[in-house]
Write a structure and sequence with these properties.
The protein is mostly helical and about 160 residues long. About 65% of the residues lie in helices and about 0% in strands.
Length: about 160
């Protein structure tokens, strides 16, 4: 039986992630704001590894470059690296329980945050490292809500 993919929910989730990413936040909360586009990409690659992969991650990275106004390829590099890690681990992460998926999302978003900070520092932009663990914890805690919105379907083989 061929698995069904919730394409309309994916489109709605991407639009909602873009809107949430564009919502202005002031003060110290700005540094705690997760990358919603990356979260949706991570959830899609974890739950549907045969449909969404590196190409999708790279395309969403280019979209994030346009939204954030960064140098072309900045977020594409970060999203592609995260997508590659999840592609390598997709045989396991697809069948993880919720707690293990939360840990996997925490580790991948922590890697993405450090990689993004490294690329920004190479470009001469100073980024504070104080808020990265908190941002990744918030990203990991948002995982169940994003999965519920997209519609996680556990396929047994």
């Amino acid at each position: 039986m061929a698995p069904s993919y919730p394409t309309t929910n994916v489109i709605y989730a991407m639009v909602l992630a873009i809107v949430l990413q564009l919502v202005p936040i002031q003060g110290t909360l700005f540094h705690w704001k997760p990358n919603f586009i990356l979260l949706v990409v991570i959830v899609l690659i974890i739950n549907y590894p045969h449909k969404y992969g590196l190409g999708f991650a790279a395309l969403m990275g280019l979209l994030a470059d346009g939204i954030f106004g960064t140098t072309l390829g900045h977020f594409m590099f970060v999203f592609t690296l995260c997508g590659g890690i999840l592609e390598l681990l997709s045989r396991w992460t697809h069948y993880f329980e919720l707690s293990y998926r939360i840990v996997a999302v925490f580790l991948v978003t922590l890697f993405a945050a450090f990689t993004q900070t490294l690329v920004a520092n190479m470009q001469g932009i100073s980024v504070p490292l104080d808020y990265l663990p908190g941002m990744t914890i918030i990203s990991a805690l948002l995982l169940p809500f994003i999965e519920r919105f997209i519609g996680r379907k556990h396929e047994t083989q």
